[in-house]
Amino acid sequence: MDPRIVIHPPSPDDPHGGRRVHYDSAILGLARGESDLREFLRRAGFPEWDDADIEDPALFRWEGGGPETWSE
């Protein structure tokens, strides 16, 4: 089963960096750090959003770098 949350590569179009975030098929927004990612998950009703292991490959798919990469 594919992870429900996809964090896309850093956006070359955003001068401040940031990564597009999908939860299931919904676009949640452009996260510029872990706090943005967790806020998007909270708003989307993701269970245990505040302490979810963002490195868990069963839940999260990171494209173009892992959780330490937020800009190009």
Tally of extended strands?
Answer: 4
Radius of gyration: 11 Å
> Number of helical runs?
1
| Principal-axes shape call | globular
Element string (H = helix, E = strand): EEEHE
Oligomer category: single chain
Residues in helices, as a percent range: 10-25%
Low-confidence stretches: none
Beta-sheet strand percentage?
A: 25-35%
Going by helix content, strand content and strand pairing, the class is alpha+beta
> In whole angstroms, how far apart are the ends?
29 Å
Task: Give the neighbour order of strands across the main sheet.
Answer: 3-2-1-4
The whole-number mean of residue pLDDT values reads 91
Largest sheet geometry? 4 strands, mixed
3D structure, described in words:
With 72 residues, the chain is α+β, with helices and mostly antiparallel strands. Helix content is 14%, strand content 28%. The chain contains one helix and four strands, in the order βββαβ. It has one helix spanning 34-43; strands spanning 5-10, 19-23, 26-31, 60-62. It has a four-stranded mixed β-sheet, with helices on one face. Strand 1 and strand 2 (19-23) form a beta hairpin. The chain is globular. The protein starts with a strand and ends in a 10-residue tail after the last strand. The mean pLDDT is 91.
